Input
Amino acid sequence: MKQSILALCACVTLLAGCSQKPANHPTDEPFRSVYHHSPATHWMNDPNGMFFDETAGLWHLYYQHNPFGTTWGPMHWGHATSADLLHWEEHPIVLYPDSLGTIFSGSIVIDRKNTSGFGENAVVAIYTQSELIGQHQSIAYSTDGGYTFTKYEGNPVLMGDIADFRDPKVMWDEKAQAWLMTLACQQEIRFYGSKDLKKWEYLSSFGKDLGAHGGVWECPELLKFTIHNSQCTMTEDKYVLLVSINPGGPFGGSATQYFVGNWDGKTFTPEAGKYADEKSVPWLDYGKDNYSTFTFHNAPEGRYVALGWMSNWQYANQLPTVAFRSQNTIARDLFLFIDDEGEYRLGSVPSKETMALKGAETKYLADCAVVELSLEGKQDAVITLSNAKGEKVVMTLDVHRQTFSMDRTASGDCSFSHEFAANTIAPLFIKRDMYHVILFIDHCSIEAFDAEGAWSMTNLVFPSEPYNHLDVQGGEAKIYEIDN
Ligand code: FRU
Output
């Protein structure tokens, strides 16, 4: 047994550095990511209004943006596009605050049938306007493919009656043959329907007594999955409601919980007997730094391609970057699977566009890399990333507890917030003989995935020099350069 442990022990000393920097960013700094989207300058939080334009072959990403500073402030919608979800081109701001308030989070749909009267294929943004006396939903449309928007003169289209009334995510609901808006309203989600994106009718509410309630509910989205039996003779629709919460996440601060259930065109009904116990709430990601996840409207092949804001409100305003603050996660595809207990779970795998950045195999770990781990399922595995300064991130696959954890308490600079040092823990959900784990490392972030998507974990790290040493006890590692 001892011998086999030794045989499975891989230890690599790593030397090289990764010099690629995004060409479109005017400033270079140690914690600027290479293959993650970050704003050229100033503050960013939630991804907003994401959609795929199949004619141009472009992914559009808008985001919460304060163009006046590197901390949260008056919100605008910034804009970037990408052909591959890895290289992003920044464009001018599309939505500025006005007399109805600043521009909070929201979504975009392509109005193919001109239901709104703004024109066939108009790109319609639905977003929250926030002002001192409350929050309302407004709309704006673009007839140039999402580069410039005209605000609707009838705004707001949905008046708020409570303080937190925000983050509309709109989709087309086949069941009701109408637009469906999911909206976060303090401690619940409300659903509204519309035929034209302008007049909205209240449908139902969900969640007051279910799920985690340690903070305000934000950024909801309803996802529809079609399940097939093994012979593909029967299909069934299942729905997943994503609900971000802040604070109240499993490791403090922000996180995204989800509920599996059914949607009948009016009401969301969760799986019977689930979610009453806060401790059993499932999370989209078991790290500290993946918040307000949304998916791209109109993604190809009916996929759910998601991005999350790679930060946490506990310390987002204090992160040690200079000209900009915050970045988004890599793109992930979301899917539904059944775990060992027979429960539906929301899985995420790196999108195929993200996997395309995996370059040649190398012996050297650098400040950006993809690492593939094969971990023996019979014994615990410990994976350590470290540098010559003694800074390290320790990941443990605990086969008895059936967990994967990431300890960043000695990862580098944790001084900017006492909430930053943490050890995050994910349930494995599926017991395997061999565990395959993928790590995406990019200067100040580590995103860990079960290769089959049963769990994911996203954490920021701020080492004073890149981790250039990888030690794996109880498994093997392959390091790949970034093909950027
Ligand atoms: C989530 C959030 C949203 C809101 C936006 C404001 O991070 O608080 O609920 O619309 O950020 O910037």
Q: What stands out?
A: The longest strand covers residues 216-228. The first helix runs from residue 2 to 7. The pocket of beta-D-fructofuranose is lined by residues 45-46, 64, 75, 104-105, 128, 166-167, 218-219, 292 (CB under 6 Å).
